[in-house]
């Protein structure tokens, strides 16, 4: 069942209105059909397709969790300055590879403190290996506060503010996930990295999507030579392994470009490859839909091509497209991360998950400071979330299918 | 429980009257799904006699296909036979045309011991076990609705037929191929030597269904289950396929269980008819009796919903309401919400037992028994029976006036 | 079948042509012409620039001619096996390319075979026993596997090996075999190193393939022809393996080319992390030093590898599926 029938068809008469012509007389029946519980199904028959998609999606627990995760990630991206205790590029040479400072409620003597706190860190140089070693200094306690005053920033680039979600008082530092080579707080770095990685993937998929819908739509709707040419182009582009192609394309990005320019250049490079997948989906849908009765019907009553495409066809596969977008974003995230990781994508001082992972290229650093892999965890979480979300959406996209 | 009920007692030995090939007793096949349990077959009983064609009719979703598959133990997951018996008489050893017996060694060594053919309860056999596999294809074969998709698209037609032969008979590849060609010729396929090496998509729908019949009959089964064999075909081909099945049935001395929703096909093909509604056989009768003297209100309604020659009516009757949601079926008689003779307080409470109304004829309806004998119950049943009789007579007698007029008069 | 093969081969020609154009565009990508940057690079190193060499190179690649002439010259060279000159290595590209490309191909193909070997049975079991605990575990592991980028797997593995086992994972040959000529011992040495990148890249793709196999098979398992096979009296395992699995293999085989492309893509970065003597690190270095003949050639050859893989998978599919062969 393709079940791409537009909503209007489903709002037919409720079952109880089945004509009863030729029967003795209705008063003669001992039972009303409603008693079978048939009438309760009406809710499904009159609901709008989006409502049906939502009902079906809601049943997919994992997809709902994934959706919440994605929302949370974008929330972090939007409010990075507020959520991060420190500036993206604030550093402290004294804190190179400092270990995480764990919050406590019981101090070393076993006394309970209502407000959690962290201990101070002190650093000694190991005489033999000349390695710096951090020890926890239990003589210093720094209480963790919420909405603490810190470096000033502009929230969403508009509202000047200086409060941060959490922080410690005085000259203490709070490093919930340790520090990197420059003594930068990993939590803050990852939070700012989330902003870049989540937006670049989203925007690049949006660009791919526009390209994909236009080319895939043209290909699927008109068919013939145009279709053939576009299909060949997609085939050729897909025969290039993505990452080597991305690497080669990044050769075109001059090293002296500003961070913003590089950001858009990388974004375009990602899109050049990614549109093909979406175009295939759109084309497939168009091809299937061209044969649908309701499209033929629309054509027969004289609807314009524009109207057929935008009023009849697009709405009936919009949900599929959204699902495909969600499934395409992980590729884009991994693309950005890989390029930046190799040092040919985004470059410091821009902070993205891939840029952060560059430090993890050195295995010695990783073994000294495993928390350098934290951005990798975020990559996995984001990719998983988009995959589960896309899966749930894809299942829900066809609300009429059983 | 109630009066003339035929409840199989657990102590019943595995015996069948000599003319009976298969008797299904109170079969229940359920599909436990996340949304709830679908009781596809829920207490179906019927009897199939040797050499006869039994048609199982009912609306789509009434469980007729699932019942047919239950007989062969090929119900799709998660479907499962929950209870009931399916007594089946094994084929006598060496009944095949070539005298080959159950073949592949592991199968039914006990069944072929030379004594009288055994009766087995198919419901107790494990779906993957050797015994049911020796029966499948060899003794009971099946023809399916969709000739297009019932053949594997990536194997030749011939190889799929020969596979069945080689599975049950100790023959060489070459012999199996020859028998396949022979069989294809018997089902009326032109140039079988060529078609045998073709793929399903290369031959027409009608030919594919012929090949399907050839595959089913390749091991000379004693029971052929045909699950809507002609539904997917055009009308002319339909008639040819039906004709072919009847002809081969006589030639090979088989019995046929014909699953269909088409009453015209029933009238043409069947000797006996079982009418199914929501997983139960509500009425079984021979074809004459059923068409001329339907007992169950559902059967009556079903017959009124098809046009009849010589009885012009202005509009055909439809059965009121829809087939109920499979997850929660009505209590009591499952037909009661749609029944024009339903009795409040009885039909929605009491599950009607099978009542023998004549030899070889059962009905499951409280109007024929099972309602109990309290005075007011008897009165209510009596009134309905009278009305039904009146309606039947009026409908038949008024001819052109049709059921509507007769019914209207009755209501006053 | 012959006719089909011929048709596929003919279709291949425009595809290869398009690929060569894209590779050529990549060569031309960096701003300025590469000879100029080469000369300035040499000058910056304080080296003498030999005018006659420059003229020779200019002549050879038609650098002062229009772009289509440059393409024609480059293409003509390709057909003769001349991939251009690597200014970074100061050697013809073809001298650098073949060994590394062969190793990349070996990694790619072994990974493909390994992923199939693992994904088939698990995918089949997962589909046949849908919603069983095993199915849930396989699905979960598959999701995780897809979500972890290959380079991260490589990093974690290297870290674990280094920090907890004090082993360094990487390379494809032990020290004494790096530059040795091919011999049986060198092959064995290669194999003893090969499994690490193969498994790292494989994890990711196996996971995806398990899900594909499961989905394909679930689509097929309830098709009428399976019931037909069962109704013949075939044993259940034979029903499954001979019919639905066989049909479910087709989309698998038909996408083998793309799977190979995906594997080569992931392997590019794993090769870098593990520092393998393959095309990945070579490509990266070429791009970083704007050594574009080399970078373009690598991209070109990787694409050709994929196209050949697709061709093989198409032919295999036609052999498996009469509907395609006989259309």
Report a brief summary of the structure.
The complex is a heterotrimer of chains A (402), B (412) and C (327). With 402 residues, chain A is of the alpha+beta class.
Task: Give the topology, please.
The complex is a heterotrimer of chains A (402), B (412) and C (327).
Chain A lengths: L41 H5 L2 H10 L2 H18 L1 H4 L20 E3 L5 E14 L6 E24 L3 E10 L17 H37 L1 H15 L3 H8 L9 H32 L2 H8 L4 H38 L10 H6 L4 H6 L5 H24 L5
Antiparallel strand pairs in A: 1-2, 2-3, 3-4
Helix pairs in contact in A: 2-13, 3-5, 3-13, 5-6, 5-8, 5-10, 6-8, 8-10, 9-10, 10-13
Chain B lengths: L19 E14 L2 E14 L3 E5 L6 H9 L7 E10 L29 E3 L8 H6 L4 E4 L13 H12 L4 H14 L5 H4 L9 H13 L5 E5 L7 H18 L2 E6 L2 H7 L2 E6 L2 E7 H6 L4 H8 L50 E4 L2 E3 L11 H24 L3 H10 L1
Chain C lengths: L1 H27 L5 H11 L6 H11 L5 H13 L5 E2 L4 E2 H36 L4 H15 L2 H16 L18 H38 L2 H8 L4 H7 L1 H11 L1 H19 L4 H10 L3 H29 L1 H4 L2
Antiparallel strand pairs in C: 1-2
Helix pairs in contact in C: 1-14, 5-6, 5-8, 5-12, 5-14, 6-8, 7-8, 7-12, 8-11, 8-12, 11-14, 12-13, 12-14, 13-14
| Tally of individual helices of chain A | 13
Number of strands of chain B: 12
Helix content of chain A: 40-55%
Q: Rg of chain B, please?
A: 23 Å
The largest β sheet of chain B comes out as: 8 strands, mixed
Name the helix and strand elements of chain B from N-terminus to C-terminus, one letter apiece: EEEHEEHEHHHHEHEHEEHHEEHH
Estimated share of beta-strand residues of chain A: 5-15%
**End-to-end span of chain B in angstroms?**
37 Å
Strand tally of chain A: 4
Helix content of chain B: 25-40%
Helix/sheet category of chain A: alpha+beta
What profile does the largest beta sheet of chain A have?
4 strands, antiparallel
- Spatial shape of chain B: globular
- Number of contiguous helices of chain B: 12
Looking across the biggest beta sheet of chain B, what order are the strands in? 6-7-8-3-9-10-12-11
Helix-strand makeup class of chain B = alpha/beta
* Oligomer kind: heterotrimer
Give the strand order, joined by hyphens, for the main sheet of chain A.
1-2-3-4
> What do the pLDDT scores of chain A average to?
76
Strand content bin of chain B? 15-25%
Major protein interface = A-C, 44 and 52 residues
